[in-house]
Amino acid sequence: MAAAQKKFQPIPMTPPDLPGNAATPAKVELGKMLYFDPRLSASHAISCSSCHNIGLGGADAEPTSIGHRWQHGGRNAPTVLNAVFNTAQFWDGRAKDLEQQAGGPMVNPVEMASPKAHVAEQLNGIPGYRDAFAKAFPDVPDPITLANAQKAIAVFEATLITPNAPFDRFLRGDANALSAQQKAGLALFMHKGCANCHNGINVGGGMYAPFGVVEKPGAELLPPNDKGRFMVTHTASDEYVFKVPTLRNIALTAPYFHTGKAWDLRQAVAVMGNVQLGAKLTDDEVGKITAFLGSLTGEQPRVTYPILPPSVGSTPRPEP
């Protein structure tokens, strides 16, 4: 327990504040509406929730998400749960925070495919949103903008935390919160070196690392044409480097890796031991580490689905 307390921190029971983006009940409620509203997409068929389903651990149980006109995204959708604690967003860290991330999928032609100018046009065309934005941003003369939509979505997403997992209770001093097998798995997780990258409050999400430190995984798990963070920084040392994913709620978010090609958590553990640590984990070790990972499942957010304002005759129509 003492060793774990030096490497990890429990998730707080209340959501954190976002710098420069104060949460108010009106702003959180607006963000929830926007998160679930498919009309932010060109087709009016895809919402933030489509790829980050709160009932599916904040992900979508797909290798890669289905977007506009049945296109597939290039990477597995990361969980939105506890994403507020990550150092950056997306697998390659191209968004510095939730607010910046919220705007990416809306305007991405493969995902929601709404041109930047159209987002505000669409929302202005739904009368019920005018009052909601005015309440959320009371000091702004013209509050319906893409930037304010991003702010509202971010404060809602910051509420999607999963505290009080067995591991959190263990970190707070409850020695009985973990089973004997989970404690053995935690010891292996630290002693084998997993915790060198998967640490902190999110048991990951705080740094970047190459995928394949010791041995490159096969092309199915590491496609040669996706060079990870290199595509953001254009720095040679960032080739095949990715943000270390959070392991919070990992038992709920199969399939795994940025390719979404591993469906079995035990397989993912074995692969990581091999390619990242150069360790051939035994079946017993894999089982114990996997059992420990199960202790990272926290209390899931309970979100009441919002009643969205209706479209009217002048509301922009969906794109076929």
What kind of oligomer do you see?
single chain
Number of strands: 2
Portion in strands: under 5%
| Uncertain ranges | none
What string, H for helix and E for strand, traces the elements in order? HHHHHHHHHEHEHH
Biggest sheet details: 2 strands, antiparallel
Distance between the termini: 56 Å
Count of DSSP-assigned helices:
12
Strand sequence of the main sheet, in spatial order?
A: 1-2
Based on secondary structure, the structural category is mainly alpha
On the 0-100 scale, what is the average pLDDT? 97
Question: How does this model look, in words?
Answer:
Helix content is 34%, strand content 2%. With 320 residues, the chain is mostly helical. Helix 2 (25-36) crosses helix 7 (146-157) and helix 4 crosses helix 7. The mean pLDDT is 97.
